[in-house]
Amino acid sequence: MLNHCQRTFRRTALAVFAAVLLFGAAGTASAQSCGPMDVVFVIDNTGSMGGVISQIQTQVGLIADAVAQASNGDYQFGLIAHPRNDAVVLLTMSPGNRAAFDDAVDLMETEGSCGNPAAWDEGLNTAVNGLSERKGPDGEQIGDFPDNWRGSATKIIIIITDVHPSGFECDFDAGTHDVRVTELGQQAAARGILVTSVYVPTGNTPESEIVAILQDPVNSTGGFFKETSPDASDLSEIVVDIIKNCGGGTRTGPTNLFIDPQELVVVNNGSGTVHVRNLEAAGFGNMTVWSVENIDGSPSSFTASFHETPAEVEGTEEMDLVITAGPETPQGTHLVILKATREGAPDNYAIIHVIVECQPPYFLGTNQPKDQTVTRGSTATLRAVPGGDGPLRYQWFRGPSGSTRFPIAGATSATFTTPAVTGSTPYWVRVTNACGSRDSATATVSPSN
């Protein structure tokens, strides 16, 4: 199976390719990696996040390098921290402010809030809307955050937290703070800002409720939802991966097409379902025409089918998209473009990262062909019982293992019956699937004396 570094490399390369294709299809994508990037971090600095802050401070160089590379050197950083129950502007966006970003990250310190939640929703509000200093019942925004978002940039907000939002209050209020996060996600989408939420599972409960709130602006904007390990040791790796994938988008501007989830993991011949919502359905008489296009150079790698579902939001149109990986689809991350066409409305696009996981063939213990001695002039049957994801293909050879000079015509199954045995002859089998091959040990068939 692919390790994380292999996945990251493949995603980055495919994201660049997707940007080129979408530029031609929709006229809005950048042809060079992610293009100019505006990246704002909204980071919970309350007491339970000490380990997270340390990870960011230690790995800030890797994060900054990823932004510089993905943007081809055209970037702006912003940083809003949340110690106590405040939103502290540590860095405003300005061109090429990497050194200032390093300094701002070093200023972050944890400090407990007056309640269990944190004011990260206020930081999201500050980042989306470019707000000046303001006060609330039990907290405040310290420092102005000018609205310096650039229209031509890929705009990304990365929220990192482990708790509910609380506004400038001490407690989370269901029906108030979660609704506010939903509204802020919609405002971000309208401005073409991609919101990514990174959840750190430090033990706060109910976890499912925290996760659902964090996922809401992600679903609205087309960003990513990520979860770290409990000690956040993989945080910098996750953030770098988000940046290399352009925050979830390879084009600028708002989209009316939202998908959940944005990453789909399947095996060969396996299927997964993505829920799609088109917010641009209202006001147009004809139904949406849905289509997908695989862009990794192998159009037959996937099949897709659409299944209409009842709209949960009035005035929208919703579908379940079932994606099935082919038997020979290579392992790794593939970009699948979803397109929604509706008469009288602009085309909408979304990108789905389909991760194909595949276990190469392998042999355990005695599951390989074995030496045999048979009566001279009779035949022997050799058998291989490999592991690995199917479908598996077989090719038997005469000679020592690894030597392919003498393939045996028609010997393409798990068992092989030899010709009449008149002398000692070595045989072996190569087993192959979509993600690799494995050679068996040599089995020697000999006649008895």
The rounded Rg comes to: 27 Å
Mean pLDDT: 84
> In the CATH hierarchy, what is the superfamily of the largest domain?
von Willebrand factor, type A domain
Name the helix and strand elements from N-terminus to C-terminus, one letter apiece: HEHEEHHEEEHEHEHEEEEEEEEEEEEEEE
Helix/strand/pairing class, anyone? alpha/beta
- Give the low-confidence spans: 1-32, 250-254
Please provide the count of β strands: 23
- What is the CA–CA distance across the termini? 47 Å
Short description:
This protein has seven helices and 23 strands. The chain has 449 residues and is an alpha/beta fold. The protein folds into three domains: 32-254, Rossmann fold, CATH 3.40.50.410; 258-356, Immunoglobulins (Immunoglobulin-like); 372-447, Immunoglobulin-like.
Write the layout of secondary structure elements.
Elements lengths: L3 H23 L10 E8 L5 H21 L4 E8 L4 E5 L6 H9 L13 H10 L4 E2 L4 E3 L11 E8 L15 H14 L2 E7 L7 H15 L3 E3 L7 H10 L12 E4 L2 E4 L4 E8 L10 E6 L7 E8 L7 E9 L6 E10 L6 E9 L15 E3 L6 E3 L9 E6 L16 E3 L7 E9 L2 E4 L3 E5 L2
Parallel strand pairs: 1-2, 1-6, 3-5, 6-7, 7-8, 10-16, 17-23
Antiparallel strand pairs: 2-3, 4-5, 9-11, 11-14, 12-15, 13-14, 15-16, 18-20, 19-21, 21-22, 21-23
